[in-house]
Design a protein that fits this description.
Oligomer: single chain
Structural class: alpha+beta
Number of domains: 1
CATH topology: TATA-Binding Protein
Number of helices: 4
Shape: globular
Helix content: 25-40%
Length: about 120
């Protein structure tokens, strides 16, 4: 089963630039387009590790709360960019890479990650 992470962003994301930064800082990955705005990340052996879906702009009041709960809704103002990141099941480091991408893109674009890291869960 895949592991899903959502990045909610204040600014329109530049996914390829963030992935290129991860690679430049040592992540052993290859990036390929997977449709308009979507990206797949492969390990050096060519196995799909992480899928990053095309960003969607959320403008409808209450939509983030409906989908992710009131705690997340309070962390991001609308409009917000919604980016789904999926770690492939059974792939070593896939969850770590997916989380790193989500954390990195939130760092550069502003926003929040769901689910939050364990240290932030109350």
């Amino acid at each position: 089963m895949t592991s899903d992470i959502i990045a909610l962003l204040r600014n329109q994301p530049d996914i390829p630039t963030v992935v290129e930064g991860m690679i430049a800082f040592g992540e052993p990955l290859r990036m390929r387009e997977a449709g308009p705005g979507a990206v797949h990340l492969y390990d050096l052996e060519g196995r799909l590790t992480v899928s990053i879906e095309a960003p969607e702009l959320v403008r409808v009041p209450g939509e983030i709360e409906r989908l992710l709960g009131p705690q997340m809704a309070g962390r991001v103002r609308l409009p917000a960019w919604w980016v789904e990141i999926r770690a492939a099941a059974g792939m070593p480091d896939a969850r770590r890479i997916a989380r790193r991408f989500a954390d990195d893109i939130v760092h550069w674009q502003g926003g929040a990650v769901w689910p939050p890291p364990p240290e932030e869960v109350l």
